[in-house]
Description:
The structure holds two protein chains of two kinds. By secondary structure, chain A is mainly α. Chain A folds into two domains: 1-44, no CATH class; 52-95. Chain A has four helices and no strands. Chain B is mainly alpha-helical. Chain B has helices at 2-15, 19-22, 25-45, 50-57, 60-82, 87-94, 100-108, 112-139, 142-146, 158-164, 167-192.
Amino acid sequence: MRMLLYIGMLLMGAFIGYKEMAHPKLLRGLDKFQMAALLMLLFVMGVRIGVDKEVMGAIQVIGFKAIVFALITISLSVLFVWIFVRYTNKSGDRS
Amino acid sequence: MIVAAVILGCLAGIFIVPPELAGKTDLFMDIGLCLLLVLVGIDIGKQKGILKEVKKLGKSLIVIPLLIALGSIVGGIVSGFIFQMPFNEGGAIGAGFGWYSLSAVILADYSNELSALAFLTNVIRELFAIMLIPLIAKYIGYAEAVAPSGATAMDTTLPIITRYTDAKTSVLAFVSGVVLSTLVPIVVPIIIGL
């Protein structure tokens, strides 16, 4: 359900962008507007983590373990994609 | 600035915001996220050659998400090994792919301790992804910058990827997020059952 909502929102935006229906003023300010919305969203995300007593309690007990897990899973994901990109040498380059 | 926003939010959550108010942020988050996704869509749509670019990605569009999944699961097993955990427990945590709520719920049946670790690991993965995406995009490559996000590449971290890479990579990120999100409820139970 949620996934459909996200896809719908993206497609709606893509349609607006493609058909040039967006106001030129909005287009020029798109970057700033996007950044403002993003920062707000990240702030609220932070609030939700900070206010959650269970998460904050868990961080003190298993925080180190979780950080190691997060770092190693991210690193290997990046490494595998890196190897693939170097091997196929067509996607991922900044062309 | 991105990291500062999260940290400030955390601090506000700990010291200022009353817990009752935080429960009401769900709708706000949904609206904010939808707005951002429309903006990201506009960004992608206004680049006319994008469909051709995406077609050029071809099989990478599906291989890259699968490699991200594999890296996460192997990473989970390796991490589990460090803490002397059985490989299925470590692997299952890695297979959360950053989707903390779902992986924690699935693992709650198995053990509360593991569920808590899955939750926290994947919360921290999302935070690290937010911090690392701009750096990886700059110093390693655009496709690699999609990897830290895992399942969150279709929602919370997508705007960051859009900002620091290009339209083609944004499409790759979204597809990758959808693939990984679909895999979480399938792969986590399989791995923990091994």
